[in-house]
Amino acid sequence: MNDLHNHHRRLCELADCVCDGRLDEATAAELQQLIKNDDAAAEIFAQYLELHSNLFWDLGILPSTPLTTQNTNSHEDSTAPLKELMDDLLTEAALNQDVTPRRTHEKQTRRTLFQSTKMLTVCLAIFLTLGTGLLWWNNSSPAPGSNIVENNSAVDSLADAPQVVSPLNPANSEETPALVENELPPELPKIDWDHPPLKSQPITVNVVEGSPTQAPVEVLGVAYSNDQDVINSINERISLGWKDWQVQPSAKADDYEWVRRVYLDLAGRIPTETELNAYLNNSSEQRDQELVDQLIDSPAFALQWSTTWSRLLVGRAPNERVDRLALQKYLHGVAESNRSWSNVVEEMIAAKGNPHQNGAANFLVAHLNNQAVPATAFVAKTLMGYQIQCAQCHHHPFYALSQKEFWELNSFFKQAVVTQVDQPQEAAPSYLLQDRPTAGPTYYETRFGVMHAAFPKYNGQEVIDDEKTSRREQLADLLTAGEDPLIAQAFVNRTWSMLFGYGFTQPVDDLGPHNPATHPELFSTLSRSFVACDYDIKRLYRWICLSEPYRLSSQMIAENREDNPSQGTPPAFSRMYFKSLSPEQLYDSLQAVAGELDERNQQWPQHVTERDQWVSQFVSSYENDENDEEDHFDGTISQALVLMNGDLVDQTIHTEKNILLKNLVSKSISDQKKFERICLTVLSRKPRPQEVALFRQIQASLRDVKSPVVRQELLASRLSDLLWAYLNSSEFIVNH
């Protein structure tokens, strides 16, 4: 059956037109020619009509026809001839459920059956064309005084919307006839939008609330291959935005603030006192660049980047089918060897095998359920930057993405299947991702109960559709084609958001004409340069971290008070926005305070396993078809309790368990210096005057203690209390 549909794709499209009442004279003639000259086509057409008749017997009546009590009898009378003709056709063609087809070896009998099928099918097509056209004419002709609904592409529940009468417009004050109960709204014609869906377009400037742009102006970015050219473009375009928005940038961040920021962003933790002093004592004019290059090439960057993308790809909630550690090992290797992001996308889309052995397979294994709908939505959202999940049931309300196009993308995953491998009873379950030998369309149902067929197609481009050719491999090639594909735009936008707290669009994974970029030319330049440099992940981070906007202070000033995206305004990036530490960053920063970084870097798989166990207390899964989960860590009671009296914090402030604290207590320096080093270790800065005054008060309470042993114990207790207070401060859990 799949082979037949594969060879008669046009026939399926014409059959859809028959069932939807969209068959015109030209397509009717084409349909008649197809089924007249091809016996197999006639049989397929009859099967297609049988499927639609079982699911939607009222295909001859348009959805806009109200099924009121007065016309129920006439409705039944009008469909009776159609049902009778359909029953006769199916009976004659031996396709009715009550008739069991008998195959005979006599050629004459089979030829007679096919000839009868063709004749009846042609009659049915002509009858449906004429009947549907007459019914449409009658229903679409407005009666005197009737309410004509104008085309609206963003309304699915028009019939349920309350009617609002404006007192300023008497023409609209006439009473609108109410819809009859259970009546469906009129079927709206398809609107041809200016922007094709799921297609990489030159990014344009659009008028949005808060934007200084007065009129849409199309601009194109430039693909640079030189690092300094890209950095200069960032500086120039962001500074032009400040002028347009009439804001002034904050001052340059001091060395302490910048070093803490770049360590949290690139290494996933705060710097140690030794690392901070190494930067401060470096007199080189290129010390910023040297530190960024050092961190990007360090094992800490590979761990931080792989941790972030493991969470984005499969979430934090446990899933028995997913091997999170295997996925992170795969991504860790990508970051260490600086492999191209386009290769990563191709490998994850086309991955096969056991997810324990092939870490890239875990992405699809996590989302291949519910007819691959979550996989379709996650690929579009995470890798392409488009939220298309609502289009599985209806046309997208914001841009031209039809329900059919959603299922055309979904059809690429029709072959993919996750099967459980036979294991000994005491062994953990094991799964296998593979492609089954199948072809043909994917079927989906519209809101009006009509079934349609969707063949694999991306960006208007069809692919080879047979049982031996992998659809996912073809999709991987299509996703990475072009000078500025969606996967490049999505990755650049998300990376910028990770480093600044906000992307060029908000939300960061919802690109499209309805959500224009705040800095379109810069966005286009970065994504095109990213592609021109072979999707080099580390170079992208280097460009952003060495730019002037990234070096700005987080301190708000009067001249940029309006630049506050947390209040809904577009970000001008005139200062560094606050970013809350993730649970993983908090865990690793506590280990940095405790002096356990060497073990963390050398045995990172064991470290990740222990850290995931600790993070799991902040994550809960919704266990729905979209595989959604909730992170209740940031600013919650759970977070406060963990920092106040959690086991990890208790170990960090314990003198005997914290190596750095133990050495600091016994070090031959003044008590004042010891207090200052606590502040430097936790907050990566020198203490403020108010804090110094507090230190002196604490130090004064120790002067009257005569016993050295008792004094040492009291000092250790005071330092432990001070460390606890700093760990529970809002400054510690924020990256600024």
Polypeptide structure, described:
- The chain has 736 residues and is mostly helical.
- 49% of the residues lie in helices and 5% in strands.
- Among the domains are: 2-138, no CATH class; 317-481, no CATH class; 637-735.
- Strands 1-2 form a two-stranded antiparallel ribbon. A two-stranded antiparallel ribbon has the order 3-4.
- It starts with a helix and ends with a strand.
Report the count of strand segments: 12
Strand content: 5-15%
| Unreliable stretches covering 5 or more consecutive residues | 1-6, 55-79, 81-114, 134-217
Strand-pairing-aware structural class: mainly alpha
Major β-sheet annotation: 2 strands, antiparallel
Q: What's the overall average pLDDT, rounded?
A: 78
Please give the count of helices.
Answer: 29
Give the CA-based shape: elongated
Compute the separation of the termini in Å: 60 Å
What is the share of helical residues?
Answer: 40-55%
Q: Numbering strands along the chain, what is their spatial order in the largest sheet?
A: 1-2
Radius of gyration, in angstroms, nearest whole number: 33 Å
Domain DUF1553: 471-610
Keywords: Membrane, Transmembrane, Transmembrane helix
Domain DUF1549: 234-415
Protein name: DUF1549 domain-containing protein
